[in-house]
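An instance noted here:
***
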Amino acid sequence: MPFQFISASTAKSHMNNAPLQYKAPFGLAPTTIGVSLPVNGLEPPRIAVIGAGAAGAACAAGLLRAGFDVTVFDKSRGLGGRMATHRAQWADASGSTHVAEFDHGCSQFTATRPRFQATVKRAEALGYASRWSQQVYAAFPLPRERQVVVPTPNMPAFCRHLLSGVPLRLGHAVTGLQRCPGGWLLHLADDHAEGRTEGPFEQVLLTIPPAQAAMLLAGHQNDWAAALAAVRMAPRWTLMAVTDDLDWPWDAAEIDESERGALAWIGRNDRAPGRRITAGLVPWVAHATSAWSLAHLEDDPADVCKALRAALEKKLPRGLPVRWHHAGVHRWRYAQLANPAAGGFDCWWSAGLGLGVCGDSFGDGTVEAAWCSGDELADAVAASLDDMLDVQTVETADTTENVDTADSAKTAKTTEAEPELADSTH
């Protein structure tokens, strides 16, 4: 059956009206939007957001602004997901230590939708993002100059800015979800222990790669789990290397498919705004093609590094030998979206279950798609909870009115009886 979903804008249009009935995605039973809250209605629900990438940051930030109690969990020790910056150290022949930084995941993005543009503009004003006219070597008719946004001073800075004020539980992998009377328990694992739980949370929102989300949803929402398991994310090996400075006029090179070989993209990390510049040295980031990465997915990292270093050297200016100072690789298992999540929605949300899913797989795999998906999920959750609170407020008002009416009746009866008493004693 086709997806059926209540969007945030539709939910908001029903605010302050009767409880909205809807059928959740994949044929969940019709339910009234809203979840159980404390009887007094004063405490905000506890919400767990799993994933601290662009989607998770947007979702958590939106819910925090709406006044909800939000905690973000991520298995990594850092923020940003694939918006990542790796810091490497090495010693030269003299024993001197050098440092280089590599934006080895997503290294820039674009902003075309108004709400995301406004968010980027605020980040720019605070110094967490910069506009960049990137000079790219690319085959015609692709543009040679591209207007992009780059977080500063590193890629995680954008998500760190969005998550300001949100409680973070980094280095905690969520290995399972468990229903309980108060909502959901999270099963956690970290470097020190496994089998711990945290909760209960009234809602759990998954913003992690589809394959990982599918594993957590299995047994709780199997239709969602099956749909997410069908989303393919291509892997990618990435080379991070430092060489002597070279006469290379481009900020990046997008390699044409007919010339690719192992590499799809090459970039000079020191050309991006706010990045570290070391005289005489160039930090390179080179992404392998999805096909090459898949074919060598389980290869020894040392062999992958050697192969990608050779591939990069072939693309650099010829005539002089390349002097290598540092080289390393990183494997992204879920790097690039191959096919989007089915249904054409920005996110999935079931108020009845207290479960939601969002991420770049609900769009075109970009940072903007991830942010918009997370932002929409936050709106959908907030709208449904606000709608339920409105209903509670009306019910409370009705109860208060009934009590006041009863008290008034008692007072009226007493007022009538008092003169009779006075007359009889006179």
Observations:
- The longest strand covers residues 324-337.
- The chain is about 30% helix and 30% strand.
- Confidence is low (pLDDT under 50) at residues 1-40, 393-426.
